[in-house]
Amino acid sequence: MDLLNLLRAGWQRLLPSPCLWCSLPVIHHHFMLCQACRSALPQFPYQLCHFNLLFLPAVQQGLPQCQFDRLLSLGWYQQPYQHWISRWKYQQDPYAGALLQQEFCALLQRYQQSQPLPQALVYVPMAPARERQRGFNQARVLAESAAKSLGIPLLHCLQRCRTTAPQQGLNRQQRLANLRQAFRLIDTQLPPKLALIDDVVTTGSTANQLAQLLRAAGVTELSLWTLAVTPASAHSSA
């Protein structure tokens, strides 16, 4: 352990940070949740689906026409993930964002131990005006963290070519209409195996639109990596 980590560990023991879920002290300076909350985090049964949520009937029900080959996510778009995602996206809470990135990269490290990695990562682009208003694109931030954690390239090849209405609250048909001709590919020299990163997948409309562009450019194996999956029963309000 280097000097900086020793100082951080000592400071954490003297003045421990509060857990971002239960507010009890966090002893280990590397984590933002206490051990009890980390152990209690809801998780998908990856040992049963070989790190592909599309094999789970409850997930398939909400994504009946997906055009990607594999889905990886932290959990359902329910508490506590829903709370942290909302805090990060709409209130620019840096601690919620840091926690989600930490848990996301931890999942990817587990994935890497038993599954082959894609050759590169891409992310869902945001309209420039909306990105300026929010101050960041959460999908890009996640992708940057994942690329650094896994040591694979991040490609900036997708662009949103028109501003669309927020997808939240729209049903499947409305989402499809809202996203029609909303994206374009600005680099067609792509490796055949990619992972697309977004914060939440609901009906899969956004991912499917981008999958069509990527497959037209020669991508043959496409994974979708997200923070959360919206249950099918909540699609009309997600």
TrEMBL record:
Q: Which Gene3D superfamilies match?
A: 3.40.50.2020
Output the SUPFAM superfamilies linked to this UniProt entry: PRTase-like
What family is it from? Belongs to the ComF/GntX family.
**Name by which UniProt lists this protein:** Competence protein F
